[in-house]
Amino acid sequence: MRAPAPLRPAPLPEGAAIRRVEQPDTVWYRDLFTRVGGQDWLWFSRLVMSHAELAVIIQDPQVHLYVLDIAGTSEGMLELDFRQPGACELAFFGVSAAMTGTTAGRCLMNHAIPAAFAPGIGRFHVHTCTLDHPRALEFYRRSGFAPTRREVEIVPDPRLAGQLPRDAAPHVPLLD
């Protein structure tokens, strides 16, 4: 995305609020990261980092973390990484299984686009993969992102490496 795309209005779920978390605690962050992406989508990259390595990233002033809170519980996350000059990466984006299929994801994206472009960047980008939600790529396209390239990346299954439980993402075959 090279310029802010038009927002697609969606009501915030009842009792929900989007708030920025500055200087997030690594234990709290890993819990949210796992609930949003670990159980269904095999997010593991932040789980294999030491707490010190993770803190360097998520507590960097150029990394902005927003959460979707519902009744005091964080049920979604939006992480904007401004560390590359002139650009913003949508580093992590998602909602918990309880919020999938509601307007929560759209609300987070409606927050992400203006927040990403506010500092005057020229490029807002996201990476997705085949392990993501089956409708993720179309969601990103409807949000204004345009695919630019494909890459092949092969990583060890985090369930076999013990970073996630073996029963995580049951829709993804586990090959011992």
From TrEMBL:
PROSITE patterns, A to Z: GNAT
Top-rank taxon: Bacteria
Keywords in alphabetical order: Acyltransferase, Transferase
Pfam families: Acetyltransf_1
One Gene Ontology MF term: acyltransferase activity, transferring groups other than amino-acyl groups
Location of the N-acetyltransferase domain: 16-167
Name of the featured protein: GNAT family N-acetyltransferase
Organism the protein comes from: Pseudooceanicola lipolyticus
